[in-house]
Amino acid sequence: MMKLIAQEIEVVAWFTETGEINPVRFRLKNDDKSNSVIKVDKVISYEEEKLAGNPMKVFTCQSLINNVMKVYELKFEILTCKWLLWKI
Description:
single chain; seven-stranded antiparallel beta sheet
């Protein structure tokens, strides 16, 4: 079961010629104000949704975090170009 986080993050991503987004890695602020960089090992699924009327691109991904394979959800808000770590 994933826990709702909804934290703004910085993401490195690459885009195809048709505008498809592929997240590569992201920086997460820890509780002690330090940063962790997490590499996106695999994008499991991709979908589009509207959250409070805002169009979002939702990526379900997995990565090896602290030697544990974790599944999490990244959201990209199209209108503001902001990334969120939504669930982990």
